[in-house]
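Q: What structure does this chain adopt?
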Amino acid sequence: MGASPTPEMDSAASPNFPNLHSLDKTSLAFITNHVFLPPKLPSKSDRTPKLEAALIHVFKDCAQTFSNRFEPQSNSRHAWDVIVRMLASTALLHDRGVVEEDQLDKQIAGIKVGGEHSNHFTSNLI
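A:
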């Protein structure tokens, strides 16, 4: 495993962490509110397709970073790689702002037993 980041290191630019600098303030606030803070009840929805896509991409990047911490042939690595592929497929579906039925059908049809995906395009996203 790599060395732990120090306060002097810019963790957002480190290869061990997702790059959060590319997110606008609204996306970063949305992700912070939905990951770290409990929901305020009652509340109105602050979700938009763009914010949902940003959240999915950050989750995918974090899952990939976490997966890379395991030995390549380990069961844990395999399990996290399945999660990363699932999030990559989800990101692909949400990037246009709407989930299109034909794209959803292609992603579902490409799923194999064990979480593998036959769509080489989605595999290249990871």
